[in-house]
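4.2 Preliminary Data

To establish feasibility before requesting continued support, the project team ran the inverse folding procedure on a target of 62 residues. The structure was first converted into the token representation described in Section 3, and no sequence information of any kind was made available to the design step. The complete token record follows.
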């Protein structure tokens, strides 16, 4: 199964190995690198991502 980085959409390297690429893949999973991990964190902190919430008042009107 091939995983893709949620930030840049590049395929992730195989995590089953002892080489440096595999170690980095495990370290930053599900991201491909530290940069993509930080870009995603910045998006959360800037409120670019939002979790939808249903207000009780709106639900009562229905």
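Position-by-position output of the design step:
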């Amino acid at each position: 199964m091939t995983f893709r980085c949620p930030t840049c959409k590049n395929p992730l390297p195989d995590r089953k190995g002892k080489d440096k690429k595999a170690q980095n893949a495990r370290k930053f999973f599900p991201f491909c690198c530290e940069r993509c991990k930080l870009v995603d964190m910045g998006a959360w902190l800037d409120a670019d991502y939002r979790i939808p919430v249903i207000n009780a008042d709106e639900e009562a009107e229905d």
